[in-house]
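Protocol step 4 of 6: structure prediction from sequence.
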Amino acid sequence: MSLVSGPGRGGSAINSTRPDELTLRVEKHVDYIKSLDSRKDELEYWLTEHLRLNGVYWGLTALHILGYPDALPRSETIEFILSCQHTNGGFGAAPGHDPHMLYTVSAVQILVTIDAVHVLDSKGKAGKEKVGNFIASLQDRETGIFAGDEWGETDTRFLYGALNALSLLHLTSLIDLPKAIKYVQACANFDGGYGVEPGAESHAGQVFTCVSALAIAGRLDLVDKDRLGAWLSERQLENGGLNGRPEKLEDVCYSWWVVTSLATIDRLHWIDGDRLMKFILRCQDPDMGGISDRPGNMVDVFHTFFGIAGLSLLKYSGLKEIDPIYAMPKEVIERVFS
Protein backbone atom coordinates (compact mmCIF):
# COMPACT_ATOMS: atom_id res chain seq x y z
CA MET A 1 0.00 0.00 0.00
CA SER A 2 1.59 3.24 -1.15
CA LEU A 3 1.94 6.23 1.16
CA VAL A 4 2.07 8.57 -1.84
CA SER A 5 0.00 11.70 -1.17
CA GLY A 6 -2.73 13.16 -3.34
CA PRO A 7 -3.80 13.58 -6.01
CA GLY A 8 -6.75 15.11 -4.20
CA ARG A 9 -6.89 17.79 -1.55
CA GLY A 10 -8.99 17.89 1.56
CA GLY A 11 -12.08 20.05 1.27
CA SER A 12 -12.10 23.78 0.91
CA ALA A 13 -12.40 26.59 3.41
CA ILE A 14 -13.21 25.58 6.97
CA ASN A 15 -16.53 27.49 6.79
CA SER A 16 -17.57 25.78 3.54
CA THR A 17 -21.18 24.68 3.30
CA ARG A 18 -20.83 22.48 0.22
CA PRO A 19 -23.28 19.64 1.08
CA ASP A 20 -21.17 16.71 -0.14
CA GLU A 21 -18.23 17.83 1.99
CA LEU A 22 -20.29 17.22 5.13
CA THR A 23 -21.27 13.68 4.12
CA LEU A 24 -18.70 10.89 4.21
CA ARG A 25 -18.04 9.88 0.59
CA VAL A 26 -17.63 6.18 1.30
CA GLU A 27 -17.30 4.88 -2.27
CA LYS A 28 -14.81 7.61 -3.17
CA HIS A 29 -12.62 6.67 -0.18
CA VAL A 30 -12.80 2.98 -1.04
CA ASP A 31 -11.73 3.69 -4.63
CA TYR A 32 -8.96 5.98 -3.40
CA ILE A 33 -7.50 3.33 -1.07
CA LYS A 34 -7.73 0.61 -3.72
CA SER A 35 -5.87 2.83 -6.23
CA LEU A 36 -2.85 3.54 -4.05
CA ASP A 37 -0.76 0.55 -5.07
CA SER A 38 -1.15 1.33 -8.77
CA ARG A 39 0.96 4.50 -8.64
CA LYS A 40 4.36 2.82 -8.93
CA ASP A 41 5.59 5.25 -11.58
CA GLU A 42 5.65 8.10 -9.02
CA LEU A 43 8.83 8.94 -7.12
CA GLU A 44 6.94 9.31 -3.85
CA TYR A 45 5.84 5.68 -4.11
CA TRP A 46 9.46 4.59 -3.70
CA LEU A 47 10.40 7.30 -1.21
CA THR A 48 7.71 5.97 1.17
CA GLU A 49 8.72 2.31 0.90
CA HIS A 50 9.74 2.41 4.57
CA LEU A 51 6.03 2.69 5.48
CA ARG A 52 4.63 0.12 3.06
CA LEU A 53 3.51 -2.48 5.61
CA ASN A 54 1.98 0.16 7.89
CA GLY A 55 0.14 1.47 4.84
CA VAL A 56 -1.48 -1.91 4.24
CA TYR A 57 -2.72 -1.91 7.84
CA TRP A 58 -4.10 1.64 7.54
CA GLY A 59 -5.80 0.96 4.22
CA LEU A 60 -7.16 -2.48 5.13
CA THR A 61 -8.56 -1.32 8.47
CA ALA A 62 -10.16 1.75 6.91
CA LEU A 63 -11.85 -0.48 4.32
CA HIS A 64 -13.21 -2.73 7.07
CA ILE A 65 -14.62 0.25 8.97
CA LEU A 66 -16.18 1.56 5.74
CA GLY A 67 -17.91 -1.81 5.29
CA TYR A 68 -15.72 -3.13 2.45
CA PRO A 69 -13.65 -5.89 4.10
CA ASP A 70 -13.01 -7.73 0.82
CA ALA A 71 -11.89 -4.73 -1.22
CA LEU A 72 -8.24 -5.86 -1.08
CA PRO A 73 -7.36 -9.32 -2.44
CA ARG A 74 -6.79 -11.61 0.56
CA SER A 75 -4.24 -13.93 -1.04
CA GLU A 76 -2.10 -11.08 -2.35
CA THR A 77 -2.27 -9.35 1.02
CA ILE A 78 -1.02 -12.49 2.79
CA GLU A 79 1.71 -13.00 0.19
CA PHE A 80 3.00 -9.46 0.69
CA ILE A 81 2.94 -9.71 4.48
CA LEU A 82 4.93 -12.95 4.46
CA SER A 83 7.44 -11.48 2.00
CA CYS A 84 8.34 -8.90 4.67
CA GLN A 85 9.12 -11.49 7.35
CA HIS A 86 12.59 -12.50 8.55
CA THR A 87 13.68 -15.83 9.96
CA ASN A 88 13.91 -14.32 13.47
CA GLY A 89 10.14 -13.79 13.38
CA GLY A 90 10.17 -10.03 12.88
CA PHE A 91 8.81 -8.08 9.92
CA GLY A 92 10.29 -5.23 7.92
CA ALA A 93 8.47 -2.37 6.20
CA ALA A 94 8.85 -4.07 2.81
CA PRO A 95 10.82 -7.00 1.40
CA GLY A 96 14.50 -6.52 2.20
CA HIS A 97 13.95 -4.04 5.04
CA ASP A 98 15.22 -4.77 8.55
CA PRO A 99 12.75 -6.21 11.09
CA HIS A 100 11.22 -3.66 13.45
CA MET A 101 8.60 -3.64 16.18
CA LEU A 102 6.22 -1.29 14.38
CA TYR A 103 6.08 -3.33 11.17
CA THR A 104 5.78 -6.56 13.13
CA VAL A 105 2.78 -5.16 14.99
CA SER A 106 1.14 -4.08 11.73
CA ALA A 107 1.76 -7.53 10.25
CA VAL A 108 0.11 -9.21 13.23
CA GLN A 109 -2.85 -6.80 13.12
CA ILE A 110 -3.37 -7.45 9.41
CA LEU A 111 -3.20 -11.24 9.73
CA VAL A 112 -5.55 -11.19 12.72
CA THR A 113 -8.00 -8.93 10.88
CA ILE A 114 -8.23 -11.26 7.88
CA ASP A 115 -8.19 -14.35 10.13
CA ALA A 116 -4.91 -15.65 8.71
CA VAL A 117 -2.56 -15.98 11.70
CA HIS A 118 -2.26 -19.67 10.90
CA VAL A 119 -0.20 -18.89 7.77
CA LEU A 120 2.72 -17.93 10.03
CA ASP A 121 3.17 -21.60 10.87
CA SER A 122 2.16 -23.05 7.51
CA LYS A 123 3.84 -20.64 5.07
CA GLY A 124 5.89 -18.08 6.99
CA LYS A 125 9.65 -17.91 7.48
CA ALA A 126 8.95 -18.19 11.21
CA GLY A 127 5.90 -19.37 13.16
CA LYS A 128 3.66 -17.56 15.62
CA GLU A 129 5.81 -18.44 18.62
CA LYS A 130 8.90 -17.05 16.94
CA VAL A 131 7.08 -13.81 16.16
CA GLY A 132 6.24 -13.55 19.85
CA ASN A 133 9.83 -14.27 20.82
CA PHE A 134 11.09 -11.54 18.48
CA ILE A 135 8.81 -8.99 20.15
CA ALA A 136 9.70 -10.20 23.65
CA SER A 137 13.42 -10.02 22.87
CA LEU A 138 13.11 -6.25 22.49
CA GLN A 139 12.07 -5.71 26.11
CA ASP A 140 14.59 -4.30 28.57
CA ARG A 141 14.02 -6.62 31.51
CA GLU A 142 15.43 -4.05 33.95
CA THR A 143 13.14 -1.12 33.07
CA GLY A 144 10.26 -2.82 31.24
CA ILE A 145 10.47 -0.59 28.15
CA PHE A 146 10.75 -1.97 24.61
CA ALA A 147 13.13 -1.08 21.80
CA GLY A 148 12.02 -0.79 18.21
CA ASP A 149 14.77 -2.98 16.86
CA GLU A 150 18.25 -4.31 17.58
CA TRP A 151 19.72 -0.80 17.54
CA GLY A 152 18.00 0.09 20.80
CA GLU A 153 15.77 3.14 20.32
CA THR A 154 13.08 3.01 23.02
CA ASP A 155 9.63 4.56 23.01
CA THR A 156 6.25 3.92 24.63
CA ARG A 157 4.96 3.35 21.08
CA PHE A 158 6.99 0.16 21.03
CA LEU A 159 5.75 -0.87 24.47
CA TYR A 160 2.13 -0.46 23.39
CA GLY A 161 2.81 -2.24 20.11
CA ALA A 162 4.33 -5.18 21.96
CA LEU A 163 1.31 -5.55 24.24
CA ASN A 164 -1.06 -5.11 21.30
CA ALA A 165 0.52 -7.82 19.14
CA LEU A 166 1.36 -10.28 21.93
CA SER A 167 -2.15 -10.13 23.36
CA LEU A 168 -3.62 -10.72 19.90
CA LEU A 169 -1.37 -13.78 19.62
CA HIS A 170 -2.15 -14.81 23.22
CA LEU A 171 1.56 -14.66 24.08
CA THR A 172 1.85 -11.95 26.75
CA SER A 173 3.38 -14.56 29.07
CA LEU A 174 6.62 -14.08 27.11
CA ILE A 175 7.25 -10.63 28.63
CA ASP A 176 7.58 -9.05 32.06
CA LEU A 177 4.18 -7.34 32.14
CA PRO A 178 4.49 -5.81 35.66
CA LYS A 179 7.75 -4.10 34.60
CA ALA A 180 6.06 -2.73 31.48
CA ILE A 181 3.19 -1.35 33.57
CA LYS A 182 5.64 0.26 35.98
CA TYR A 183 7.43 1.97 33.10
CA VAL A 184 4.15 3.41 31.79
CA GLN A 185 3.37 4.74 35.26
CA ALA A 186 6.74 6.51 35.28
CA CYS A 187 5.77 8.34 32.06
CA ALA A 188 2.72 10.00 33.70
CA ASN A 189 2.91 13.78 34.12
CA PHE A 190 1.37 16.29 36.53
CA ASP A 191 -1.16 17.37 33.88
CA GLY A 192 -2.55 13.84 33.59
CA GLY A 193 -0.90 13.14 30.24
CA TYR A 194 1.95 10.84 29.28
CA GLY A 195 5.22 11.35 27.43
CA VAL A 196 7.50 9.23 25.29
CA GLU A 197 9.64 8.48 28.35
CA PRO A 198 9.74 9.52 32.03
CA GLY A 199 9.96 13.32 32.25
CA ALA A 200 9.00 13.95 28.63
CA GLU A 201 6.28 16.40 27.61
CA SER A 202 2.71 15.11 27.45
CA HIS A 203 1.59 14.34 23.90
CA ALA A 204 -1.73 12.96 22.68
CA GLY A 205 -0.04 10.23 20.66
CA GLN A 206 1.85 9.00 23.69
CA VAL A 207 -1.29 9.27 25.80
CA PHE A 208 -2.91 6.78 23.44
CA THR A 209 0.00 4.35 23.65
CA CYS A 210 0.24 4.50 27.44
CA VAL A 211 -3.48 4.42 28.21
CA SER A 212 -4.10 1.61 25.72
CA ALA A 213 -1.16 -0.37 27.08
CA LEU A 214 -2.63 -0.07 30.58
CA ALA A 215 -6.03 -1.09 29.21
CA ILE A 216 -4.59 -4.23 27.61
CA ALA A 217 -2.84 -5.00 30.90
CA GLY A 218 -6.08 -4.49 32.82
CA ARG A 219 -4.68 -1.56 34.82
CA LEU A 220 -6.79 1.45 33.87
CA ASP A 221 -7.18 1.97 37.60
CA LEU A 222 -3.75 3.63 37.46
CA VAL A 223 -5.00 6.44 35.21
CA ASP A 224 -6.13 9.76 36.72
CA LYS A 225 -9.16 9.85 34.41
CA ASP A 226 -10.50 13.30 35.32
CA ARG A 227 -7.12 15.02 35.09
CA LEU A 228 -6.28 13.28 31.83
CA GLY A 229 -9.77 13.89 30.45
CA ALA A 230 -9.41 17.60 31.14
CA TRP A 231 -6.04 17.75 29.35
CA LEU A 232 -7.38 15.84 26.35
CA SER A 233 -10.56 17.93 26.08
CA GLU A 234 -8.41 21.07 25.96
CA ARG A 235 -6.98 19.80 22.69
CA GLN A 236 -10.13 20.86 20.82
CA LEU A 237 -9.81 24.16 18.94
CA GLU A 238 -12.39 26.67 17.74
CA ASN A 239 -12.66 25.02 14.32
CA GLY A 240 -13.63 21.72 15.96
CA GLY A 241 -10.34 19.97 15.21
CA LEU A 242 -7.91 18.58 17.76
CA ASN A 243 -4.20 19.15 18.33
CA GLY A 244 -1.67 16.90 20.01
CA ARG A 245 -0.32 19.33 22.59
CA PRO A 246 -0.81 22.98 23.56
CA GLU A 247 -0.20 25.73 20.98
CA LYS A 248 -0.13 23.35 18.00
CA LEU A 249 -2.31 23.24 14.90
CA GLU A 250 -5.26 20.91 14.51
CA ASP A 251 -4.69 17.66 12.62
CA VAL A 252 -7.13 14.94 11.59
CA CYS A 253 -4.89 12.20 13.01
CA TYR A 254 -5.63 13.50 16.53
CA SER A 255 -9.25 12.65 15.85
CA TRP A 256 -7.92 9.21 16.72
CA TRP A 257 -5.17 9.79 19.29
CA VAL A 258 -7.30 12.07 21.45
CA VAL A 259 -10.75 10.59 20.90
CA THR A 260 -9.71 6.99 21.49
CA SER A 261 -8.15 7.88 24.84
CA LEU A 262 -11.26 9.80 25.86
CA ALA A 263 -13.37 6.80 24.86
CA THR A 264 -11.16 4.41 26.82
CA ILE A 265 -11.48 6.45 30.03
CA ASP A 266 -15.20 7.18 29.48
CA ARG A 267 -14.74 10.92 28.93
CA LEU A 268 -15.66 11.18 25.23
CA HIS A 269 -18.59 13.45 26.10
CA TRP A 270 -16.11 16.08 27.30
CA ILE A 271 -15.53 17.33 23.72
CA ASP A 272 -17.93 18.56 21.05
CA GLY A 273 -18.26 15.50 18.84
CA ASP A 274 -20.47 17.17 16.24
CA ARG A 275 -17.95 19.94 15.62
CA LEU A 276 -15.16 17.39 15.34
CA MET A 277 -17.13 15.32 12.81
CA LYS A 278 -17.68 18.41 10.67
CA PHE A 279 -13.96 19.20 10.81
CA ILE A 280 -13.02 15.67 9.68
CA LEU A 281 -15.56 15.73 6.86
CA ARG A 282 -14.23 19.08 5.63
CA CYS A 283 -10.80 17.43 5.33
CA GLN A 284 -12.00 14.87 2.78
CA ASP A 285 -11.78 15.25 -0.97
CA PRO A 286 -15.42 14.66 -1.97
CA ASP A 287 -14.52 14.16 -5.62
CA MET A 288 -11.39 11.97 -5.62
CA GLY A 289 -11.52 10.45 -2.14
CA GLY A 290 -9.04 10.49 0.70
CA ILE A 291 -8.70 12.66 3.80
CA SER A 292 -5.99 15.21 4.60
CA ASP A 293 -4.59 16.54 7.87
CA ARG A 294 -6.55 19.78 7.49
CA PRO A 295 -8.61 21.48 4.76
CA GLY A 296 -6.65 22.44 1.65
CA ASN A 297 -3.79 19.96 2.08
CA MET A 298 -3.04 16.80 0.11
CA VAL A 299 -4.82 13.61 1.14
CA ASP A 300 -2.97 10.43 2.16
CA VAL A 301 -3.87 6.99 3.49
CA PHE A 302 -2.54 7.75 7.00
CA HIS A 303 -4.99 10.60 7.58
CA THR A 304 -7.71 8.78 5.66
CA PHE A 305 -7.55 5.91 8.12
CA PHE A 306 -7.39 8.06 11.25
CA GLY A 307 -10.18 10.33 10.01
CA ILE A 308 -12.46 7.36 9.35
CA ALA A 309 -11.43 5.78 12.67
CA GLY A 310 -12.30 9.00 14.49
CA LEU A 311 -15.70 9.16 12.80
CA SER A 312 -16.33 5.55 13.84
CA LEU A 313 -15.56 6.37 17.48
CA LEU A 314 -17.94 9.31 17.21
CA LYS A 315 -20.66 6.90 16.00
CA TYR A 316 -20.93 8.34 12.49
CA SER A 317 -23.88 6.60 10.81
CA GLY A 318 -23.10 3.63 8.56
CA LEU A 319 -19.57 2.92 9.78
CA LYS A 320 -18.48 -0.30 11.44
CA GLU A 321 -17.28 0.04 15.03
CA ILE A 322 -13.56 0.31 15.69
CA ASP A 323 -12.01 -0.90 18.93
CA PRO A 324 -10.46 2.13 20.70
CA ILE A 325 -7.65 0.12 22.29
CA TYR A 326 -6.45 -2.05 19.40
CA ALA A 327 -7.30 0.30 16.48
CA MET A 328 -8.90 -2.64 14.69
CA PRO A 329 -12.50 -3.55 13.80
CA LYS A 330 -14.42 -4.26 16.99
CA GLU A 331 -15.89 -7.44 15.52
CA VAL A 332 -12.36 -8.75 14.94
CA ILE A 333 -11.34 -8.10 18.56
CA GLU A 334 -14.49 -9.81 19.80
CA ARG A 335 -13.62 -12.84 17.65
CA VAL A 336 -10.06 -12.99 18.98
CA PHE A 337 -11.02 -12.79 22.64
CA SER A 338 -14.36 -14.61 22.60
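Step 5 (inspection) to follow. The longest helix spans residues 52-66.
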